[in-house]
Amino acid sequence: MSQSPDKWSEAGRTLGNDLFKKYPELKIAYDLGQEFKKWYDLRNASIPGIYIERNLHNWYCKVEDTKIKEFQSVVKMIEKHETEIVNFFSMGHINAKAERLNGKIQRFVSNNYGMRDKDFALYRISGYFS
Q: Is the separation of the CB atoms in 122 and 115 below 8 Å?
């Protein structure tokens, strides 16, 4: 049930409504997740950065009011990377390529049982990735 309600089938809508009636905390968590998903949309890039941050901080307050511990850890993680996340809206860029390259380098180093000679390892890495 990670889809927005407008994409639910009739059976999914019935199931969702039944679950939300039986477990109201699930409805709150779902709504918080959907609100964050709506906030973290590239279409919001046209909104000035101060409003982006304000909306994020308003979401933090809503999460704190719910006292759902799973979301508390999500907020901590987002707060830790808030600068990078907010920068996503100013440029529309993400660092996925850099992270992928970093993962490849780490795999290369672990497959070669670490690095003893740093210069030679950098030489091999440059040859491997060029």
A: no
